[in-house]
Amino acid sequence: MFGAGGGTSSYEEIETTDLIVLWGSNAREAHPIFFHHLLKGIDNGATMYAIDPRRTASTAWADHWLGIDVGSDIALANTIACEIIAQGLHNEAFIAHATTGFDEYRASVEPWTLEEGERVTGVPASSIQDLAHAYAKAETAQLLWTLGITEHYTAADNVFALINLALLTGHVGRYGSGLVPLRGQNNVQGGGDMGALPNKLPGGQDVADDAGRARFEARWGVELSAEPGWHLAEMFDAMERGDLHTLYIIGENPAQSEADGEKARHALKSLDCLVVQDIVMTATAELADVVFPAAVGWAESEGTVTSSERRVQRVRMAVTPPGEARDDIDILVALANRLGHDWPATTAEEAWNELRSLSSWHAGMSYERLEALGGLQWPCPDESHPGSKFLHARLWEEPSGGPAAPFTVVEWRPPIDELSDEYPIRLTTGRHLDSFNTGVQSGRSHAPRRKGATIDISPEDAEHLALSDGDLARVTSRRGSVVAPVAVETGLRDGLAFMTLHYPDEVDVNVLTLDTWDPKSGTAEFKATAVRIELEG
Amino acid sequence: MISIDGVDVQAPVDATILEAAAKQGTEVPTLCYLETLTAASTCRLCVVEVEGARVLAPGCSRQVEEGMVIKTRSPRVDRARRMVLELLASSVDLSLAPELLELAEEYGAAPERFGEVRAQVQLPVNTDNGLYVQDLSKCVLCYRCVSACGDDAQHTYAISVTDRGFGAAISTEFGVALPDSACVFCGNCVAVCPTGALIVTTEYDMRQAGTWDEELQTVTRTICAYCGVGCNLDVHVQDNEIVKVTSPFDHEVTAGNLCIKGRFGWSHVSGPASPD
Fold first, then answer.
1. pLDDT band at B274, cuts 50/70/90?
2. What are the pLDDT digits (tens) for A117-152?
3. pTM for the complete prediction?
4. How much is the ipTM here?
5. Is the pLDDT of residue A361 over 80?
6. Whether A299 and B269 lie within 8 Å, measured CB to CB
7. Alpha-carbon distance A322 to A216, whole Å?
8. Are residues A68 and A204 in the same domain?
9. Cα separation of A245 and A453, whole Å?
10. Which of residues 158-217 of B touch A (CB under 8 A)?
C-alpha cells in the first residue's frame, strides 16, 4: 500500500494500541503466536471489534462481534466511512495533508447509510455505528485482516476499502496505528518482496519502470520484459486456452489448492510438460512429467524468510536432506547449466547479497546482522539502519515527503455464486488450529484433537435439514459435489456452512469452489460458494 | 541507591531484587521464576535477607526500595534455601532437574533426614495424547505451566492446581484426559517446566529407551514453516533426526511460545532411513 507491499506495523504495536479491528481473520487458530501479542493488547485494555461471518475462537475474545454476511465487506467499510463523515469524525487535517481523492470518495460512500449497510451486510446498524465511532475516535487503532478479505473475486477492492478507512481517520503511519494483513505462509511476504509477483522485480521494483529495470538488466546481463507476467489464475486460463504448454511448479500443490479443482487438474494434465519441485510426492507431483525432490526449506536448507511484520529472518539447515533431495538453489543452478548457461554454484548468502545490492529495502541486512539482531524489518537501507518498525511515517511529516496516499473509490458487488432455491446455503472456508493448507506438511504429524474433514452447519440448518452430528451429507455446488460427515457448530448462523481445505484426500472441497478470480490480484472466490446440503444415501 | 551484598547499586524503581542483583552480576537461585512469566513466588528458593525486615523476601517479586540493604547469601538465607531443597528432594523425583540437584549439593541439602525419600508423590505417568507426557511425580507445583497456559501467554486455561497439601496436583478441568480437556497442545507448558514433569513424547520415549543423548545433539535456530508470523524455532537434532522443537525465550516474536504446528508439526522432515 502506498508503494510498499507490506503490513505497516510491528506485532509489538498491538500490545499497546487502544482499538483492535480484526476483519475476516481467525488469527487465534491461523496465527496463534500473533494472537498472543493481540491478547496482551486486550489485557492492557484495548477494545476489540471482530468482523467475521462465523463466531470463531478469535471473535470469542472480542468486545463486539459483527456477524457479517459473506462477501459484503465493502458495503460494511463504506457504511462505516459514511457514518464517520456524516458525524464529522474524519481526520480533516490528515486528509488534507496526506491524501488525494477524498471528494470522490465521500461522494461514493454517501449512499451507504446505516440502514442500507444493515440491509446488505446483515450487521445491525447500531453495531456499525459503534464501530465507526470507536475507530474514528480511538487514539491508536490496528486494522488487521487475512483471507476473509482477500479470498474473494473483489480481493483488491476489499483491501482498498479498508485502507480508505485508515486514511479517513489517520490510523496509519503512526506507532500503534496501522494496517496489518496477516500472511498465511511463512514466506508469502518474502516471496513477493523477492519479485515472485508478475509485475515486480525484487525489492518492490515495478517491471514497467525503465530506470529501475535497467539496474537489474545491468546486474544480470540480460534484457528484461517491461510487460508484467501472468499471475496464477491467468496461467490456468492460459493453460485452458492452450497458450501455456510448460509449467514449472516449486513448492505449491495447485492440484488440491486451486478453486474449481476438477478444472484445475484438467488444465495441469493437458500441459505438454509439467515439472514439480517439492519436498514430498504431492497430488500435483503425481501429475508431473519430471519431479525434482527438494530439501525442506525451513529445516534442510539455508536462506531467509520474511514475516507479516516485514521481518527478515534466517532459516538454517538443521538436518541434511534425505536421498536425492537437493537445495532449491542447487536445483535451479543445475537446471540453468543443463539449459546451456554457465551459472556458478551459489550459496544462499551469495544470492542474498546480490539481492541486497539491488534492493534498498534489504541493503542493510547482512547475514551477520540478521543473526545478531534476531532479524530486521524492511526497509533497512544501510548497515547502520535499525530496520523499520512501522511504515509511512512520512504521511505525517511536514511536508509529507512523497506522493500523497490516494483514496480509492470501491463499489460493492455481491458474491458471484448467487444463492438460489437450488443452492440456498452459503459455504465459506478456513483453517483449523492444528492443520495447514492442503495438509502436505501438517497432515504427517499427530494432532490429538484434529477434527478431520466435515461439513459444519448451524444448529438451525441442522434442524430444518434433519441432519445430526456424524451423518453423511452430500454438499453440492454449481460445479460439483462431495460427501462429508456433518458437524453441527454453534458458531455458525442460519444459512452459513463451513469447510476446511486441510484434508483434500478425504473430501476435496475445491470441487465445490468457484474459480472466478479478482482481475487485480488473481485471487479466486474461495470464501463464497452457494451450495445445497442433503443427507447422503 | 540500594546495597546488595555490601555493594552500592542503582536500580530502576520498579525493579525486583532479582533484577537488581542480576544487573549487579549477582546470581540468585530460582525455580518457579521465569522472565517471561509473572512471578508466582511459590518456591521460596530466591529468598534474600532485607535488613530490618522480619521475614526473608522473595527476590522474584519484592521490589527494591530506596536505601534497601540486601544480603543474597547469609546463614539465614542458606538455611531457608537448604530447607526448600530438602523438602522438594524428599517428595519429588528431581532426576530431570540437574540444576536443582546441583543446588542441593551446593547448599548441603540432606533430604534423607525426612525418612523414606519420595514417599508422598507417586502418580502414574500420563501418556494420553501422543505429543507430551505428564509425570507428576516430578512436579514441584511451581505454577509455571499454569501461568503459561493462562494469563501469561496462551490464555487457554486448560490446567490448574487441584486439591491441597500432598494431594495438590496439576489437573485439567474435572481431571479429564488432556484430549478431552480445553488443551490445544501448544506445549507452552512443556516449554516452561523446570523439572521434566512435562516432557515431549519423543524425548520421553528416547529416555525410556536409553537413546536420548544431549551430547550427540545439535540445536539449530530456524523459522517455522507454517503461517506468516515468523516464529523462531530451535530444532534439536540427534543422528540427523529431529527429536524436539523449542523456541527461544529471548526472541520478541515468540517469547518461547509456539502453537501445535510449530512445536509438533515437523514429521514431514525425514532424515535418511534408519539402517534397521
1. very low
2. 999 999 999 999 999 999 999 999 999 999 999 999
3. 0.95
4. 0.95
5. yes
6. yes
7. 36
8. no
9. 34
10. 178-179, 184-186
Classify strands A19-23 and A141-145 as parallel, antiparallel or unpaired. parallel
The answer, for B258 touching chain A at a CB cutoff of 8 Å, is yes
The shortest C-alpha distance from A308 to chain B (Å) reads 6
For residue range B116-144, list pLDDT tens digits in order. Answer: 655 556 778 999 999 999 999 999 999 99
Cβ atoms of residues A532 and A242 within 8 Å: no
Q: What's the CA gap between B37 and A122, in Å, rounded? A: 42
What local confidence, expressed as pLDDT, does residue B276 receive? Answer: 36
What is the dihedral angle through the alpha carbons of A428, A433, A434, A439, rounded to the nearest 10 degrees? 30
Provide the shortest C-alpha distance from residue B179 to chain A (in Å): 6
Among B55, B36, B69, smallest CA distance to B147 is for: B36
* Residue B127, C-alpha cell as written in the block: 501418556
Together in a domain, A318 and A443: no
CA gap B182, B162 in Å, rounded? 16
pLDDT band at B47; cut points 50, 70, 90:
very high
Residue of chain A minimizing CA distance to B219: A318
The three three-digit cell numbers of residue A443, written as one number: 497432515
Looking only at the bridges linking them, the beta strands covering A47-51 and A64-66 are: parallel
What CA–CA distance (Å, rounded) separates A333 from A344? 7
Interface contact B226-A187, CB threshold 8 A: no
Please name the member of B240, B241, B257 whose beta carbon is closest to the beta carbon of A33: B257
Domains and CATH numbers, chain B: 77-114 (no CATH), 132-264 (2.20.25.90)
Beta strands B217-223 and B232-238 are antiparallel
Extract the C-alpha cell encoding A184. 498465511
A107 shares a domain with A164: yes
- With a cut of 70, say whether residue A36 has pLDDT above it: yes
Q: Which amino acid is at B266?
A: W
Q: What is the C-alpha separation between B156 and B141, in angstroms, rounded?
A: 19
The verdict on A359 and A435 lying in the same domain is: no
